UniProtKB/TrEMBL annotation:
Keywords: Glycosidase, Hydrolase. Residues 152-471 form the Glycoside hydrolase family 20 catalytic domain. Belongs to the glycosyl hydrolase 20 family. PANTHER family: BETA-N-ACETYLHEXOSAMINIDASE (PTHR43678:SF1), PUTATIVE (AFU_ORTHOLOGUE AFUA_2G00640)-RELATED (PTHR43678). GO terms for biological process: carbohydrate metabolic process. Signal peptide: none annotated. This is Hexosaminidase.
Length: 652
């Protein structure tokens, strides 16, 4: 096999200090093994990097090295060039102490040597180095040796885009975000519907969406947001380059209102229009063609190994229906396999016990609720499983059930994928391939935004990345982990939470004066913040913009009422206050993850808190109205007047 040396040029300057490096560097997920040595390796503004690879892996290794170079530039401003000579960073394919395809070793001495069994291990090693460099702002690395590998091969996150649309840019950001934490499976739930009680108990009015362009069924994709087939293909390619497999899900035969609204004859009269009629031949004709559209051909739309077909929460009241449900699941497992893929399913066979055989071999079962699929029974049947217990790892934003924010303390101290509901298995059970956590956007239209969802996901991603990679081998107490995790960024160049460093007084940004059209150096400020300024407005009309960014707009005058207001992702909120003309007032807006407050001349005038609205008289149909605001700062609007003493602060 031929070794190829490429380099990334960065001139690298080494300074040996005499501080001890015995303490394990803090990264997420935690390293399996660290052997410290004396001294640090100090970095100058330029470095040299080389890689060694077999011919078959050259393309992938070249991608790893190129991405590492770009990330160093993005994060620390370190210039990368290419060289074929002696290098200070060496990334090579070479056997390591652990037989694990994602494992790697890093030796930090007079140079940094990364060794990995496969290119994916080399990629994860670069993420570790980047996180280590965050601690010194790119200036140095502690000397020592790392041996690292995952306890579980599947480490995943599921996002419900069916009931809330997330832009393709958000999904692309999440590929980078997940990759930075070595999470390797992105499950995208492409279809679903809201609950009928929130829409006047009318199926025709109930929100439902399928998010992928279809040529077979024009108009099937949701009008308020969908992905073109090319966008989805490109997303999967990006994911592959970042060590991630995307698992697309078309959820059938329940949660299917988007399809029955498109073709009503597919719906079940007995169980509701969010259930397919399993006895109607047109149901099978429709979905056979839909799966074929995304799976057929040399370059299919769904590129990965697995395609998820849903198959849960269908009625089990009638034995005849149960047997037909089992037939349906078996049919679509085999339909997916017909195109060379493997099927992912939600566990349901404890709920749907019957005689009709359902294929088990090479099917990956997401075990979410033991009443639907008893884990021990499913293992006995022969399933490979993913641990995704609803009572531990389900986020349903602002719904009042499951978790708004996961209990990361409990998960860090007690959970690994070996725990599924109330059943605990041996670690590294051969049939438990790993774990996932999920965001379900059950309450359609409740005002939750991409920013709000991410605020919930970020601490969960950091915590569960540890528990799926490092397993029970964590060494830090939770309180220490919870403190130190805040110092690790989301990913190179990524700041969805819009957090920025503040001075000793909490000040992030100050301007003596601002005028219409001015731009600011940060696009927005996330929770928890206070934006304060003096404004003297003149004769402004309704719809006048005060501040704007790509994600939100603050209006000096609401389009209809003329009150101070804001809009994000199509959701509007207004304060019970009209900014006066021709004399100055001091306005301060405070934003947290639970609402937004307005102060005028130091006095609280209005608090737009997240509140629950009752949709009927049963007491069982409350939905939150979310009124948060990540404050837009990218540009000052075209208003008449002047702003002075402008300050952005972080609240403690």
């Amino acid at each position: 096999m031929k070794n190829i040396f490429l380099a990334f040029s960065f001139l690298f300057f080494v300074v040996v200090s005499f501080a001890s490096s015995e303490k394990k560097p803090f990264v997420i997920p935690e390293l399996q093994s660290w052997t410290g040595a004396e001294g640090d390796l100090s970095l100058d503004n330029t470095l040299t990097i080389a890689y060694e690879s077999t011919k078959s892996d050259d393309k992938k290794m070249r991608s790893v090295v190129s991405q590492f170079s770009a990330d160093l530039k993005t994060m620390f401003g370190v210039q990368a060039e290419t060289t074929t000579g002696k290098a200070n960073f060496v990334v090579k394919m070479a056997p390591i102490a652990v037989d694990n395809k994602e494992g790697y070793e890093i030796e930090i001495g007079e140079q940094v040597v990364i060794s990995a069994n496969e290119p994916i291990g080399a990629l994860w090693a670069t993420k570790t180095i980047l996180q280590m460099l965050e601690a010194t702002e790119g200036k140095s690395l502690p000397k020592g040796k790392i041996v690292d590998y995952p306890e579980y091969p599947l480490r995943g996150f599921m996002l419900d885009v069916g009931r809330k649309f997330f832009t393709i840019d958000f999904l692309r950001d999440y590929v980078h975000f997940m990759s930075y934490y070595k999470m390797n499976t992105f499950h995208i739930h492409l279809s679903d519907n809201g609950f009928r009680q929130y829409f006047g108990n009318d199926w025709d009015e109930t929100y439902a969406a399928f998010r992928l362009e279809s040529d077979t069924y024009p108009g099937l994709a949701a009008k308020d947001g969908y992905y073109t087939k090319q966008e989805f293909i490109d997303l999967q390619i990006l994911a592959e380059e970042n060590g991630i497999t995307i698992v697309p899900e078309i959820d059938i035969p329940a949660h299917t209102l988007a399809f029955t609204q498109y073709m009503p004859e597919l719906g079940s009269e007995e169980y509701g229009m969010d259930h397919l009629d399993l006895f109607n031949p047109k149901t099978y004709e429709f979905f056979d063609k839909l799966f074929k559209e995304y799976l057929d051909g040399k370059e299919p739309v769904f590129r990965g190994e697995y395609v998820h077909i849903g198959t849960d929460e269908y009625s089990n009241k009638d034995k005849k229906v149960v047997e037909k449900f089992r037939y349906f699941q078996d049919h679509y497992i085999k339909e997916v396999e017909k195109y060379g893929k493997k099927a992912g399913v939600w566990g349901s066979l404890t709920h749907a016990q019957g005689e009709t055989p359902v294929k088990v071999e090479d099917v990956l079962l997401d075990c979410w609720y033991n009443g639907y699929a008893d884990p021990k029974a499913m293992i006995d049947l022969g399933y490979d499983m993913v641990s995704i217990p609803d009572g531990l790892v389900y986020i349903v934003p602002a719904a009042g059930y499951y978790y708004d924010y996961l209990n990361i303390a409990h998960l860090y101290k007690n959970w690994t994928p070996a725990t599924i509901g109330n059943q605990v298995f041996e670690e590294n059970h051969p049939q438990i391939k790993g774990g996932k956590f999920a965001v379900w956007n059950d309450h359609c239209g409740n005002g939750i935004t991409e920013k709000d969802v991410h605020h919930r996901v970020f601490p969960a991603m950091q915590t569960l990345a540890v528990k799926m990679w490092t397993g029970k081998n964590t060494s830090l107490p939770f309180d220490e982990f919870n403190k130190q995790r805040l110092a690790i960024s989301e990913a190179p160049g990524l700041n969805i939470n819009a957090t920025y460093k503040a001075d000793e007084n909490g000040v992030v940004l100050e301007r003596e004066n601002l005028a219409a059209g001015d731009t600011l150096p940060i696009p927005e400020i996330g929770y928890n913040y206070r934006v304060e300024f003096t404004i003297r407005a003149k004769n402004n009309i309704n719809s006048t913009v005060l501040f704007e960014s790509p994600n939100a707009t603050v209006y000096l005058r609401h389009p209809k009422t003329g009150k101070l207001a804001y809009e994000r992702e199509g959701y509007w909120s207004e304060f019970d206050y009209v900014v006066p003309n021709d004399y100055p007032v001091v306005l301060a807006i405070e934003g947290t993850n639970t609402g937004t407050k307005l102060f005028v001349n130091g006095q609280l005038v209005d608090a737009l808190e997240n509140e629950f609205i009752e949709y009927n008289q049963s007491g069982k149909s409350k939905m939150a109205k979310i009124q948060t605001l990540v404050f837009p700062l990218a540009k000052v609007g075209d208003f008449e007047g002047a702003i002075s003493d402008f300050t952005v602060k972080v609240l403690k």
